[in-house]
Design brief:
Layout: H1 6-17, H2 23-30, H3 34-46, E1 66-74, H4 79-90, E2 95-100, E3 107-113, H5 116-127, E4 133-140
Antiparallel strand pairs: 1-3, 1-4, 2-3
Helix pairs in contact: 2-3
Length: about 150
Protein backbone atom coordinates (compact mmCIF):
# COMPACT_ATOMS: atom_id res chain seq x y z
CA UNK A 1 0.00 0.00 0.00
CA UNK A 2 1.22 3.48 -0.84
CA UNK A 3 2.27 5.50 2.19
CA UNK A 4 0.55 8.87 2.56
CA UNK A 5 3.39 10.99 3.83
CA UNK A 6 3.36 14.80 3.93
CA UNK A 7 4.42 15.12 0.27
CA UNK A 8 1.82 12.65 -1.00
CA UNK A 9 -0.78 14.45 1.09
CA UNK A 10 0.15 17.78 -0.56
CA UNK A 11 0.06 16.14 -4.01
CA UNK A 12 -3.42 14.76 -3.33
CA UNK A 13 -4.74 18.08 -2.04
CA UNK A 14 -3.44 19.97 -5.07
CA UNK A 15 -4.70 17.38 -7.55
CA UNK A 16 -8.12 17.36 -5.86
CA UNK A 17 -8.44 21.08 -6.52
CA UNK A 18 -6.50 21.30 -9.79
CA UNK A 19 -6.58 17.95 -11.55
CA UNK A 20 -5.08 19.33 -14.76
CA UNK A 21 -2.08 21.02 -13.17
CA UNK A 22 1.05 20.36 -15.23
CA UNK A 23 3.55 18.02 -13.56
CA UNK A 24 6.23 20.75 -13.61
CA UNK A 25 3.98 23.09 -11.61
CA UNK A 26 2.91 20.33 -9.24
CA UNK A 27 6.52 19.31 -8.63
CA UNK A 28 7.48 22.91 -7.91
CA UNK A 29 4.61 23.35 -5.45
CA UNK A 30 5.41 20.17 -3.50
CA UNK A 31 9.19 20.62 -3.60
CA UNK A 32 10.16 17.65 -5.76
CA UNK A 33 11.93 17.17 -9.06
CA UNK A 34 9.50 16.63 -11.95
CA UNK A 35 10.54 12.97 -12.33
CA UNK A 36 10.13 12.23 -8.60
CA UNK A 37 6.75 13.96 -8.57
CA UNK A 38 5.55 12.02 -11.61
CA UNK A 39 6.64 8.74 -10.01
CA UNK A 40 4.63 9.56 -6.89
CA UNK A 41 1.52 10.50 -8.88
CA UNK A 42 1.79 7.30 -10.93
CA UNK A 43 2.20 5.26 -7.74
CA UNK A 44 -0.90 6.93 -6.26
CA UNK A 45 -2.79 6.08 -9.47
CA UNK A 46 -1.57 2.45 -9.57
CA UNK A 47 -2.44 1.89 -5.94
CA UNK A 48 -5.99 3.14 -6.55
CA UNK A 49 -5.76 6.10 -4.21
CA UNK A 50 -6.27 8.34 -7.24
CA UNK A 51 -9.28 6.73 -8.91
CA UNK A 52 -9.50 9.13 -11.83
CA UNK A 53 -9.78 12.69 -13.03
CA UNK A 54 -12.91 14.52 -14.08
CA UNK A 55 -14.17 17.80 -15.38
CA UNK A 56 -16.17 20.15 -13.17
CA UNK A 57 -19.18 21.22 -15.20
CA UNK A 58 -21.25 24.38 -15.02
CA UNK A 59 -24.67 22.89 -14.42
CA UNK A 60 -26.60 26.04 -15.28
CA UNK A 61 -24.98 26.16 -18.73
CA UNK A 62 -26.08 22.54 -19.19
CA UNK A 63 -29.69 23.40 -18.35
CA UNK A 64 -29.63 22.07 -14.78
CA UNK A 65 -31.36 24.63 -12.59
CA UNK A 66 -32.80 22.48 -9.81
CA UNK A 67 -30.88 20.53 -7.18
CA UNK A 68 -32.39 18.55 -4.34
CA UNK A 69 -31.34 15.99 -1.80
CA UNK A 70 -33.95 13.29 -1.43
CA UNK A 71 -34.29 10.75 1.34
CA UNK A 72 -35.97 7.46 0.50
CA UNK A 73 -37.36 4.91 2.92
CA UNK A 74 -38.04 1.41 1.65
CA UNK A 75 -41.09 -0.74 2.38
CA UNK A 76 -38.95 -3.79 3.02
CA UNK A 77 -35.50 -3.90 4.61
CA UNK A 78 -34.24 -6.86 2.62
CA UNK A 79 -31.21 -7.24 0.38
CA UNK A 80 -33.54 -8.02 -2.54
CA UNK A 81 -35.44 -4.74 -2.05
CA UNK A 82 -32.22 -2.76 -1.74
CA UNK A 83 -30.71 -4.33 -4.85
CA UNK A 84 -33.86 -3.66 -6.88
CA UNK A 85 -34.00 -0.04 -5.70
CA UNK A 86 -30.31 0.55 -6.39
CA UNK A 87 -30.62 -0.93 -9.86
CA UNK A 88 -33.59 1.30 -10.69
CA UNK A 89 -31.89 4.41 -9.33
CA UNK A 90 -28.66 3.68 -11.20
CA UNK A 91 -30.62 3.99 -14.47
CA UNK A 92 -32.08 7.41 -13.57
CA UNK A 93 -29.87 10.09 -15.14
CA UNK A 94 -31.32 12.68 -12.73
CA UNK A 95 -29.74 10.86 -9.78
CA UNK A 96 -26.15 12.05 -9.56
CA UNK A 97 -25.39 10.35 -6.23
CA UNK A 98 -26.99 7.53 -4.27
CA UNK A 99 -25.90 6.75 -0.72
CA UNK A 100 -27.12 3.93 1.52
CA UNK A 101 -27.31 5.56 4.95
CA UNK A 102 -28.17 4.78 8.55
CA UNK A 103 -31.10 6.32 10.40
CA UNK A 104 -34.83 6.36 9.78
CA UNK A 105 -34.49 5.97 6.00
CA UNK A 106 -32.27 3.85 3.78
CA UNK A 107 -31.09 6.20 1.02
CA UNK A 108 -29.94 9.74 0.36
CA UNK A 109 -29.98 10.86 -3.28
CA UNK A 110 -28.61 13.97 -4.97
CA UNK A 111 -30.99 14.77 -7.80
CA UNK A 112 -30.46 17.34 -10.57
CA UNK A 113 -33.13 18.39 -13.07
CA UNK A 114 -33.78 21.33 -15.36
CA UNK A 115 -36.39 22.88 -13.09
CA UNK A 116 -39.10 22.20 -10.51
CA UNK A 117 -41.53 20.85 -13.12
CA UNK A 118 -38.94 18.32 -14.33
CA UNK A 119 -38.27 17.31 -10.72
CA UNK A 120 -41.98 16.86 -10.05
CA UNK A 121 -42.25 14.58 -13.09
CA UNK A 122 -39.23 12.53 -11.95
CA UNK A 123 -40.54 12.40 -8.36
CA UNK A 124 -44.00 11.19 -9.40
CA UNK A 125 -43.36 9.15 -12.53
CA UNK A 126 -39.95 7.61 -11.86
CA UNK A 127 -39.17 7.45 -8.14
CA UNK A 128 -42.76 7.39 -6.91
CA UNK A 129 -43.74 4.31 -8.90
CA UNK A 130 -40.93 2.08 -7.66
CA UNK A 131 -42.54 -0.73 -5.68
CA UNK A 132 -39.79 -0.67 -3.03
CA UNK A 133 -40.39 2.97 -2.05
CA UNK A 134 -42.25 3.67 1.19
CA UNK A 135 -41.39 7.33 1.80
CA UNK A 136 -39.81 10.25 -0.03
CA UNK A 137 -38.63 13.51 1.51
CA UNK A 138 -37.19 16.28 -0.65
CA UNK A 139 -34.75 18.95 0.50
CA UNK A 140 -34.42 21.68 -2.15
CA UNK A 141 -30.98 23.28 -2.37
CA UNK A 142 -31.29 27.07 -2.43
CA UNK A 143 -27.54 27.84 -2.46
CA UNK A 144 -24.22 26.03 -2.03
CA UNK A 145 -21.72 28.35 -0.33
CA UNK A 146 -19.22 25.46 -0.18
CA UNK A 147 -19.10 22.52 -2.58
CA UNK A 148 -15.76 20.72 -2.96
CA UNK A 149 -17.08 17.91 -5.15
CA UNK A 150 -15.21 17.56 -8.41
Amino acid sequence: MTKIDAINDRILRILSAEGRIPNLDLADRVGLSPSACLRRVQDLERSGIIKGYRAVLDQTKLGIGFLAYVTVGLKSHTKVAQDAFEKAVSRAREVRECHNITGTVEYLLRVETADLAAYKHWHSDVLGILPQVQSITTFVVMDSPKDDRA
